[in-house]
Amino acid sequence: MDRRETTSMQPIQADANNIPKGSIDCGVQAIGCCNGPGCQKLGTIRTFLIIFSITGILQGAVDSYFRISVKQAALDYGFDAAIVDWLLAANSIAQSIIAIFITHWASKFHHMSWLGCLTMIQALGCIMVIVPTISSQNLEGSSTSLAPITPLCQKTANIKFTNGKPYAVDTLVLLFILQLGTSLGATVFYTLGFTYLDDNAELVDSPALIGTALAARFWGPQFGSAVSLAVNATPFTWWLGWTVIAPSLFILGFLLTLFPRRLLKTVIKMAANRIIETNNLTPHQPAKFIEDVNLWPSLKRLFQNRILILNILAMMFIQAASMNYLNSEQDYLKSRFFVPSNEASGLINEWTSRFLANLLKPPTIALTVLVAGLIIAKINPSARSLTIWNISIGVITCLLYVSYIFIKCPNVKMAATMGNKIMQPFCASSCECPQNLQFLPVCPQGSIQTYFSPCHAGCSSQTVLNDVTIYQNCTCGADSSFTTKNILATEGACNYKSCQKMWIVFQTMVIFSAALLSSGIIGRIIISLRSVLTQDKSLALALELTMVGLFTYIPTKIGYYFVSVYTCQFQSVSNSECELHQSPLHGNILNIISASLILIAIILDCVLLAFVKYLDCYHDTTEESFRTLPLRAISSNSRYEELTENGRDEQDGSFVDSNSPLIHSIQSTQPSFRGTSNTTSENHEESPSRALTADSPVDSNTEHLDFNVANGDNNTGQSTDETTGPSNIYSNTQQSRKNVGPTSPETDF
Questions:
Q1: Which of 202-211, 419-428, 578-587 has the highest mean pLDDT?
Q2: Higher local confidence (pLDDT), 626 or 509
Q3: Other beta carbons less than 10 A from residue 485's beta carbon
Q4: What DSSP string describes 584-642?
Q5: Can you list the domains of the chain with their CATH numbers?
Q6: Residue 159, CB half-sphere, CA atoms under 13 Å: how many?
Q7: Contact 468, 490 (CB under 8 A)
Q8: What is the pTM of this model?
Q9: Any idea what DSSP says for residue 235?
């Protein structure tokens, strides 16, 4: 029979005084009504999971919409591309730097208060970033264009005079502040939020709950892209989307602050654990050994944990490969498959130019994470099985990256290439092509060479026929060294149909590899949580964020950046952005680097496999004590006396009445225990004890819970028998703990 089914058949009796003061409370103490019965009934793991998951969706939308907004703002204000690129990485870098300190500090106080408040701060940052734009509409800089910037051939230079926008710098600064707020919200979501789920759920159910929340977080970016489409349908610009996302995120953050320090069901379980824990106590064994909870001893303990460090290192290399490859994907598509730039309008083309990836990738990853969590919760694979699965998907992903080297457009050559750089061809020498043109490939009739843009092909006009753009009056044909007249050109690279087929194959394989890697995330999180002490869970996740983020977005990102600079063929002068890289050199180097990083992760997982052999991911050692056990009584001289099943004390021959009343207790779904008492069963029937269940309201403002003693005495917290009462057992347990070392209210259990 399943362990959960066995323990749910009998009730357990636990001392009410074993509930620490403040365990059941409202995160926002000023709102006293939230400590009443109505709110307490809503304080369940299911309610928290729903609110927490919706928060994850909105936080994912913030990440996605911020990326779209900052690119659109860069076009509006003329920000340098390098600034935009590092601004996008600032979120993860800041998150890596502050994760350990924020998590450690928050762990000393109320987890849910910090989670909710930092989420609300993130929402306020979303509102602040649009204030300069909205308040300065009357200061909009005017501009005069002698010739508008166009991809077509112009006989005069494109000159644009702009008076400037005085609030551009303010917007840039606020965008950076928003990234800091986003990093705070993402940090506590991952560390405090996942730890709260794991602490308040059965260990076998934890993977499913964490998988649900993480899947919502991964699906969030698609919601942000949908918001951008809705904004594009209005006459307003990028700032409008924040007016929708920010208020919703603020409300959810406030709801999170209302959850107690621990859910009521968890508190009842912990109170019962104290009695049963004391039941197994020996004279030389404390009830619970709590390590030093200060920051540096905790970090030292984590770094000495070989399972945790190896798991983090493997995740670090996988994340470095996948994230930097993803950030380079747009450049990869342009140089490998000659896909046009999608930055001309950050809102319009964000979805349409990469329809397949944007439509399928986020929900595929989210669904994979959700299914993986449910499967782990259902079949309970061992830590070795989870590690073997991670090794298997690592090998497959590594092979996929190697196979990308052979997926490319056949027989595509760029015109006017000189010394690995793209120059303006002789046939278009009469055109004034600006140096900030984005990549828009065209193919003249009868040519096998692809031109960088219509201007580089000498095309002066265009028309749309059956949703296909036709460029007319082009002066370049099959040979870029000769000038011709009245040549037609079509959008897209030469041999475009073959390129498109290979592009679809590549995107399909990328989605498949992303789904594979995401299937191992929940297993890695569970291994990290189970390999450390309960008090170190949130700090272990914070250490993971720090190590993964710093390695991914500093040394590895710099390495990918050098590859981009080295293989650049055409660089925009205005914003220092490389519009096109050498093909296939650029893609081959990225594939080799990414495959090498995955290979290192595989080696680390193989080493980890030797250490997780005895790691138990689903067995709660305290739950194993939730069976019927002989009760130990502690006498006045702290001598441990075991009572036999028939009630006789083996040492002094005294008896315990088997019909004695139950100790005043909290009732949960665990076995019953009886204590010694001079009260008869008749007295017990006249004054039944009050029991507290998971559905019972608790007033957190009281000093302790009020229970009726079995003999009719209403003195709260006093046992009917000073020798065997659970209060004395608990006090002796506390005295034993004092001999061990410092404890913390948050980690006392």
A1: 202-211
A2: 509
A3: 9
A4: THHHHHHHHHHHHHHHHHHHHHHHHHTT-TT--SS--TTGGG-S--PPEEE-TT--EEE
A5: 43-258+290-408+500-609 (1.20.1250.20), 413-494 (no CATH)
A6: 6
A7: yes
A8: 0.76
A9: S
